[in-house]
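Interim report, section 4.2 (structural modelling).
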Amino acid sequence: MSNQVSLEDYPRPAVGVDLAILTVASTTDSPRLCVLVQDRTAPDGRGLPGRFLRERQTVFNAVGDILRLKVNIAPPTSPTRLIRLFDDPDRDDRTWAVSAAHALSVHENTLAGARGDLVPVAADGGLPEALLFDYDLIVREAVTDLRERYETRKKYRDVQPDPDGFLAGPFTLAQLRRLHESVLSVELPKDSFNRRMIGFLRPVLRRNRSPALSSDGVGRPAQLYRKR
Amino acid sequence: MSNQVSLEDYPRPAVGVDLAILTVASTTDSPRLCVLVQDRTAPDGRGLPGRFLRERQTVFNAVGDILRLKVNIAPPTSPTRLIRLFDDPDRDDRTWAVSAAHALSVHENTLAGARGDLVPVAADGGLPEALLFDYDLIVREAVTDLRERYETRKKYRDVQPDPDGFLAGPFTLAQLRRLHESVLSVELPKDSFNRRMIGFLRPVLRRNRSPALSSDGVGRPAQLYRKR
DNA sequence: GGAATAGTGTCTTTCAGACACTATCTG
DNA sequence: CAGATAGTGTCTGAAAGACACTATTCC
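Predicted structure of the assembly:
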């Protein structure tokens, strides 16, 4: 069809990768779903960390660069999810640029010392502040995507207690429930939730085979679990 | 951060748009979910229609070009869905190319006179023949994406009888069920299916307010419905 | 004992699926 | 009439949610 010469001659867009980094921060009383927001200078304002693809670079690689160079954390372990492609040719007034918006879930601890602020996500998926460009939309869609994975109420089979790995070690059913509540922005009934989850968890035992319990201080200690 | 000059200087990838065009063909006895497959010349073999983005072109626009110029049908009405981004730098041996795989559902009649073959999709989402590049994978993911929209068994609320519009005019419950069965590659029980759908349909009435019935020839004629 | 949290037994409602039956057409 | 397809009444089982109760800790 087309030969090499003409293919190279067509103008090409710069391809950007933007990253909505999601985490559940439990610094305060109850955990909250948050997005990492950074200051941007090109147009002044706040937005998501991003970067253009360098020569023959993959998206995975560019995400690594963003995390190392712009966020100042170690590259990801969990998969990066493609959320949307922004292709309005007037999107960036410097040049023709296409942007692939991605989402990445990371454990809270990974973000210790990260550049930027953890901004809590509202129940409707929005943020308390307006971001530059289409970043608000990216966050909304990333949150919707995340919530679908944590919506277990209609998935009797194939429930994954913590698909994105926001909980590190062993956890109690109450901690797991509060995680789901903060991701979904919904109150979940304790009894139904426990019965739904229990089959997909493995109780943690001590060396003497007695159940390992969490000692949070107040109230009856709870059984600790791991994902099965 | 970076100024205009250096931004323009970085090499850029060619950005391709590949299209998995899905339809439900009822030419034979029972409807079948199919994908449009075309012959390709660049490397010899079969694959999906696609095209590189021209200067400052949107994906929507490129999809229109693909449909007009490569498939020979009218541009789409239904939304095009982003499936995946293929970014292996060695994917195309002619140049550095990134490809945005998209899926598009169209009514069977739209494809009358289209270039290429309608190849039926197997129960596992695969095709009977191997395609070039990553095209098999695109088809698989496009079919998974489609099936999620037609999976109504666990969505008690917000059931959409025919989200992608494969049925044109009024239809019977049996036709709707056979559509779902061919999309999902699953047998659905008649009674449960009817009870689930009936609330989201509007019976078609004749001018004299009597119910409009389909007369397929054999058996009791069935009530015709439209989406509510 | 009282406060707080963990865990469970039971009831109701909802819905899917199975089964069988009735209804209405053609030949 | 038989054959074929449409449509429905009823039962069972699974699971969610509501409610209340018991269990175990700290003070």
